[in-house]
Design brief:
Heparinase, Beta-galactosidase, Chain A, domain 5, 6-hairpin_glycosidase_sf
Amino acid sequence: MLTTDPIPYAAFIVRHLLHPVGPRFGNRHAVAETEEMMDGDRWFWSDDNAKVLEFLSLPPVWWAFPEAVDATFGFLRDLCRGPYVYRRLGQARLDAVENDGARARFVHSLMDITCDLPAGVVTVGVRFHDGRTARNVMLTGNYVRFDYGGVGYTLDVEDAIDAWEIRHRGDSLELTHASELRFVHEGRNLRLGRLAYTYRFDARTTVFRAEAALDLDPGVTVSDLVLTISADQLTHGELGMTYNAVRARRPGAAPLTVSVSEPAQGLLPLSGAPYWSLSRDRFMRGFSPAIHSMPREPGRFSALNIVAQEEGNLHWVAAEHAFPGDRCGERVSVEETKLLTSGGFYDRVDDMAAIMAAEAAGPPSQPIDLSLSYDYGVELAAFARRARMLARAGEGAKPMVEEALGMHDQLLAAYEENMLRPAETDPRAIFSRPLSFVVMGLVDALAVTGSPRHREALRRAVDVLLTFEQPAKDMIGKPVSVFPMGKGEPAYLDCHAAAVLALARAASAIDDPRIAPALDHALSAFAIGTHAVDLGGPVKQDGVVVDVADEKGNRHTHGSFWNYSAGLSLRGFAVLRRSPKPEIREVLARHGDRIELFETLMRRQVARSIRPREEALEIRTSVPSGESNSETQPWVAMGIIDDPCDDGPENL
């Protein structure tokens, strides 16, 4: 029912998913998320292009589509900057969805922007297509502080709003609310001035700006004026949105990190800091939200006024900008450039400041998500696989082999420093699925180099992957194990299958007596089950699942409804079957009848999802889905075809 020829699957990618990227990287081509625009967007994900590159690097595919392979590699290389792999590139868009002149919602390619200007609220979130769009920051809660006649005053900005305006012109958007500020001194009602907050967005970039400008009354002289740019309701619980760490770059001093762990309130002095951020620690580094800020005039930035609630979760933070001395009848203004990310190495404060500064300084061209790659690790596998395939071409390909290996080794060093090392003290820091691909990339790199460095790195990565193994019980009480997404996270079939695949491949390259028992227990967790899938309403699916009971006896099931999970599972079973190690083949033999049944069901599921497209074959994301995407097509194809490189280093 399914051809093992990779060319028709690759042809769909080349003919239907490969699109011009846009101006940021010189109008090169890359693989878009979907064939047609989704919700008006065309996104190019770094990790999905890496998954495609691993597949396209297979010799028959590479020979058939060399330009597509080079384009995908070039795009991926463009998104790698030192230890960072930026998440995705969008195409400029800034559309009004709702707008009554005061309350509105706008869709930026990579952001969701809403406002309630009479209330003084502007909300911005990182935008997705799968329900993960969140309220990353709510810009409100501002005040003005000053001294007059020896008395200190603090005026609430939002309570005094009396005017607002929305200006949307093509690629630009400005949201403004204005307040008439007055105060009472010794029985007299005095006018401080007119204050306007303006928030500026551009369709061609993900940085945006918040400005507070106060026109002081010429009849009143105040001193030690402070303007604020604030964020309120930071920890609101929706989609796990939590912030509990403050970081800042400081002039003449080491970067500052403050991790809040209990309720707190007060000023955090940060005089002259050119960059500061709020982020969520104690979470996977590729998924943690952060709000980055750069003052236009760092010399005026003085402190953060912070309120943290239970467990140290930040609730309200106001950045104070100071104007010392006397002020009268003049305009004073402050501005912050801001950026949202949903994953990153936030403890590398200088790096994050430089990344943001470069994006803010350059002319807007095309929006880029400067978050860390979602599956940071598949890029290593793609570069290593490219090097392994190029190594077959002889001496003439040596410079390209060295380039691909260089990219792999650069990211490997970054992964070890920024992922594996933090995981030693915080097991929740990393995501198991990309770690599995780090393991597989090292198997390929080792096949090319035979280097002790790659062998030792492979052992270390396997060591960490094995720490994810979570003992459980099956439905008859026998011991099994699962590889969950992260420590304390659910056991999804794709993560479990990726770990099985990685360990099976690692077993061909290193001797580790722990691998065979881990695979034995992991195969025991596969089962046939029925579970519900939400497709705008519950849909019942029968298929292959991971099915286990926790220590309290509660059952947990996650299935292969989405075909990429089936693809990873099929690829893992194939590697087990062809393993050069007898002990690994013996593990499969103990589960042989069950695995054959699982393979039959999943191959039938994939076959029902395939749609002929002239000379190409499209693998839709699920049986009822309307199309494929840039993750499903390569991962399922790799599970269907015969890939000798998966069998072991000696097959180079």
